[in-house]
Amino acid sequence: MHIKNVSRWPTTVAPVPTAAPLPALYSGGGVYSFGDPASITSPLPASAVPAPIVSITATPDGNGYYLVGANGSIYTFGNAVYYGSLGAYTIGSAQVPAPIVGMATTPDGNGYYLVGANGSIYTFGNAVYHGSLGGIVPDIPVTGMALSSNGAGYWLVDPDGIGSSYSLPGTSPSLPIGRNIVDIASSQIAPATQPGTFCNPYGPCEPWCALFATWVWRSAGVPIPIYSFTGSIYDWGLLNGKVLPPNALPQPGDIVLYGTGPQTVNTSVHAGIVAQVWPGGAIDTIEGDAGPGSNGEYGSVMNGPYYPAWSNWYNGFPVYAFVQP
Question: What is the pTM of this model?
Answer without folding.
Answer: 0.60
